[in-house]
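Researcher: Please predict.
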Amino acid sequence: MVIKIPEKCVDVRAEADVLVVGGGPAGIGAAVAAARQGCRVMLLEKRGFLGGNITASYVETCNHFLYCTNFQTQGIYHEIEQKYRDSFGNSHDIRTYAPHRFSSEYLKVFLDDFLKHEQVAVKLHSFVNDVVIEDDRIQCVIIQSKQGPLAIKAGAVIDATGDGDVAFSAGIPFEQGRDKDGLCQPGTVNLRIAGVDVEKFSGEPDKLKLLWNKFLDDYRAGITGLSCKRQDLPAGRLTPAGIISYLNYSCAYGIDPTNPDDLTRGEMECRQYIMELYEYLKKNVDGMQNIEIASIAPEIGFRDSRRIKGLYRLTKDDIEANRKFDDVIAVYPRIYDMLAPDGNMEGDGGLEGGGYKGHIYVPIENSRTYQIPYRSLLPVKIDNLLVAGRCISADHIAESTIRAISACMLTGQAAGAGAALALKDGNAPKNVNIPKLQSILRDQGVDLP
């Protein structure tokens, strides 16, 4: 059944030079980069806070695979990391040897202040679900609010939604999931536990890592009694208050991240897995007999969804060959991080292997890096739209590396700088002067060849 929605007149509530949709790492990078080029920037976010998956899904370990490597965080992400430490300390982790991690709660406050200082106009509780297009340009973005639909007019628009929502509304072609069946990686709802016996998890070696290793052994031996198909147990900060800031465990498979029915099933399924894990830890782990669930992440987090069709599709072959691009806007370590979309725990563990043993994780070797071209941020049509973050133009395996949080902020920073430069020079984003764009990014702390 199909119904026709009557046409409505919509108030233009605000105007901006650059409108960024999505307040996660990619959107923050885009908004700040554009604002620093003198643009009036507005950042729209559907939630009541900024930070994306870091704050909404408790993904506090943003760059765990960068530690013990020569690669340093760059650009706006590096600046945020340093200023956050100045404001809130290193990590709130009793394990002095643990890598830096954000606190998702403190980060919400930090980002409010940081964006205000950068003179970015932030509008929360703003879910974008339509656009107005004239002459292959987005004239306005339509947001849904308690007051009904509202329009925001912009000279350039950056889609940093993670799901390519703006690009989808604009009719941009896209891919989703793996090639053979369209399945995406599973969704996860993280949790936070309290009541951990801090003394029993202090000192070296890292007791949480030992717990992870034991969990893996028990899972493969079939003795955990847990029904979730997940054989690793990443954990976050252990605070002096006896809180483990997040456990990344539950996995809901076969979920389309753009389908509300699937999202509902995924949220509820993951909460059942969380209860199973909670009971398992209380009964089986010394020092966790008195734990309680402190909180469950506000929403399910996803590792991939739509990937827009852009002027260049970054591929695994590009990454393996470390292909050089004249329009390079970011250099990042070669790493693949993917959970099996079908939940198959078998396979050879290789990039193309059946179930990837449930998870592929190819670490950095010999400081290998790859380049991301600016063209991957440019949709095949719509002259004033750029895309940043995990939904840029790439194949499914390449997406498993560009989805890393600091990589998302790098592509966002490039999109913001590109949009600002295009407006300043009176060009479409696809026609910007690439050496000039690269010079701006270098000035903003991005390490480019």
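Model: The domain at 11-180+304-443 is CATH 3.50.50.60 (FAD/NAD(P)-binding domain).
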